[in-house]
Amino acid sequence: MDTATPITPSADPEAANRARFELELEFVQALANPFYLHSLAQQNILEQPAFINFLKYLLYFKDKDYARFIHYPHALHHLDLLQHTQFRSAMKKDEMFREYLNQQQFDHWRTW
């Protein structure tokens, strides 16, 4: 009987990279939801320097090699907007702004 240890994601760099990519992709796609953005803002997550750096890092999804995995194009638009302090502040203090984003997104999909 072979007692070799099974390959875990941490032992297999390719699997670890794939798992990380899938998590980052899922997070970027969640950014398409204005209600999720508002929730992040209400929890003061959008003000944390480490999170802002993470948002900058995620801009690699705009490259065509990675953008092809995005199912919700508004995610990339919102990722761009999140790079600006003014947008992050507006998401925190103004529920009407969240509703405006939601309505704009709805109108885009309705008429696309």
Total domain count: 1
Average per-residue pLDDT, rounded, comes to: 85
SSE string? HHHHHHH
Distance between the termini: 60 Å
Largest β sheet strand count, sense and barrel closure: none
Number of helices: 7
Question: Total number of β-strand segments?
Answer: 0
Task: Please tell me what the overall shape is.
Answer: globular
What structural class is derived from the secondary structure elements? mainly alpha
Verbal overview:
This protein is mostly helical and about 110 residues long. It has one domain. The protein has 7 helices and no strands. Helix 2 (about 35-40) packs across helix 6 and helix 2 (about 35-40) runs antiparallel to helix 7 (about 95-110). The longest helix is centred in the N-terminal third of the chain and has 18 residues, at about 15-30. The radius of gyration is 17 Å and the shape is globular. The protein starts with 12 loop residues before the first helix and ends with a helix. The mean pLDDT is about 85.
